[in-house]
Automatic annotation (TrEMBL):
<feature type="region of interest" description="Disordered">
    <location>
        <begin position="13"/>
        <end position="48"/>
    </location>
</feature>
<keyword id="KW-0479">Metal-binding</keyword>
<dbReference type="InterPro" id="IPR045087">
    <property type="entry name" value="Cu-oxidase_fam"/>
</dbReference>
<feature type="compositionally biased region" description="Low complexity">
    <location>
        <begin position="13"/>
        <end position="43"/>
    </location>
</feature>
<dbReference type="InterPro" id="IPR008972">
    <property type="entry name" value="Cupredoxin"/>
</dbReference>
<protein>
    <recommendedName>
        <fullName>Copper oxidase</fullName>
    </recommendedName>
</protein>
<dbReference type="Pfam" id="PF07731">
    <property type="entry name" value="Cu-oxidase_2"/>
</dbReference>
<feature type="domain" description="Plastocyanin-like">
    <location>
        <begin position="93"/>
        <end position="199"/>
    </location>
</feature>
<dbReference type="GO" id="GO:0005507">
    <property type="term" value="F:copper ion binding"/>
</dbReference>
<dbReference type="GO" id="GO:0016491">
    <property type="term" value="F:oxidoreductase activity"/>
</dbReference>
<keyword id="KW-0186">Copper</keyword>
<feature type="domain" description="Plastocyanin-like">
    <location>
        <begin position="220"/>
        <end position="322"/>
    </location>
</feature>
<keyword id="KW-0560">Oxidoreductase</keyword>
<dbReference type="InterPro" id="IPR011707">
    <property type="entry name" value="Cu-oxidase-like_N"/>
</dbReference>
<dbReference type="InterPro" id="IPR011706">
    <property type="entry name" value="Cu-oxidase_C"/>
</dbReference>
<dbReference type="Pfam" id="PF07732">
    <property type="entry name" value="Cu-oxidase_3"/>
</dbReference>
């Protein structure tokens, strides 16, 4: 299976050791030594393939579900996130190894209100160390999730409790993601949304744009050459259902680690009202918006079309509209349908 070969477990497992490991500067390395090195690499690859083959299949089919919490005695909203490596069905019949939170890509959406005390128990069931960064939130450095600076990497089988309060300046669209071996872990699906709503009755709440539909879409990739929206490739991407006359808020999050994606909505002009979690003083209109790695955008559009209408929302890099093994006459990848319900 091609996806297995591209997962990179061999390199990620190798990178789990100390970054200061010794290296040989001896220029007289023998052919025998080189042969041993090749044998070791082959052994690592075989171990990686065996590890992937042992992964369980995901039991849930859709990510980005609202996270649940319990109230601690001190009033904190207490969430639990579990890092798990699973086989994820990216499109019907195609399973790829993924780094997930609570078994899905994306992980669950954390949605809280400014002023909330948030406590998150993070449990690492990956086969390697990891950590979680709260991208865009103003939190103390020890809660920021950067290994070697605010905390140590969370080793396999260990847990870490993040504890912070979200404030008025945090209102907006943010996300959480791995910050250890992130080139592999984020590209493998280790991320989720973190939305902070304004306090009821606050100036921010009064300035908030009312939306009938509020939808969050991660733009990213998964192993095996798949381009995905919320962890799925077309035609298995989840449609955005609207009704004529509704105001729609679309929160875009750039979870790709390498590429910029110009996202285009057919038949509509949208207004960009926020970027990177902050409202724009001068919103602007577009029908195509470039989403770079790590960026978030909030878009508003009016569902003007007749019931039964269907419009694609897609990346305008055409090679990103194909799944592995498809030809140019087939559509896949970064495509999501906007469907007008009757």
């Amino acid at each position: 299976m091609v996806a297995v070969l591209s997962f990179g477990l061999g390199s990620t497992l190798a990178s789990g050791g100390s970054a200061t490991g010794s290296t040989s500067s001896d220029q007289s390395a023998t052919m025998s030594g080189m042969s041993n090195m090749n044998m070791n690499t082959s052994s690592q690859d075989a171990n990686a393939t065996a590890t992937v083959a042992a992964l369980p299949r995901a039991t849930q089919s859709q990510g980005n579900q609202l996270a649940t919490y319990v109230r601690d005695p001190d009033g904190a909203k207490h969430f639990t996130l579990v890092a798990e490596q699973v086989l994820w069905e990216v499109v019907k019949g195609s399973w790829v190894p993924a780094y997930t939170i609570n078994g899905t890509v994306p992980g669950p959406m954390i949605r809280v209100t400014a002023g909330d005390h948030v406590r998150i128990t993070f449990i690492n069931h990956f086969h390697e160390a990891t950590s979680i960064h709260w991208h865009g939130l103003e939190v103390p450095s020890q809660e920021d999730g950067v290994p070697g600076i605010g905390q140590q990497p969370i080793q396999p089988g260990q847990s870490y409790v993040y504890d912070f309060t979200v404030h008025d300046q945090d209102v907006g669209t943010h996300w959480y993601h791995s910050h250890y071996n992130d080139l592999n872990e984020i590209a493998g699906g280790c991320y989720g949304a973190f939305i902070v709503d304004p306090r009821p009755g606050s100036p921010q709440a009064r300035a908030e744009v009312h939306a009938d539909v509020d939808y969050t879409a991660f733009i990213g990739t998964l192993p095996g050459g798949y381009y995905v929206i919320n962890g799925k490739s077309f035609p298995d991407t989840q449609p955005l259902h609207v009704r004529h006359g509704q105001t729609v808020r679309l929160r875009l999050i750039g979870a790709d680690t390498l590429s910029i994606h110009p996202m285009h909505l057919h038949g509509h002009t949208f207004t960009v009202i926020a970027q990177d979690g902050h409202p724009l003083t001068q919103p602007y209109q577009r029908d195509t918006l470039q989403v770079a790695p790590g960026e978030t955008y909030d878009l508003i559009f009016t569902a003007w079309a007749a019931p039964g209408s269907i419009y694609p929302f897609h990346c305008h890099i055409l090679s990103h509209l194909m799944n592995p093994g498809q030809n140019a006459s087939e559509m896949g990848g970064l495509v999501m349908l906007v469907i007008y319900d009757r």
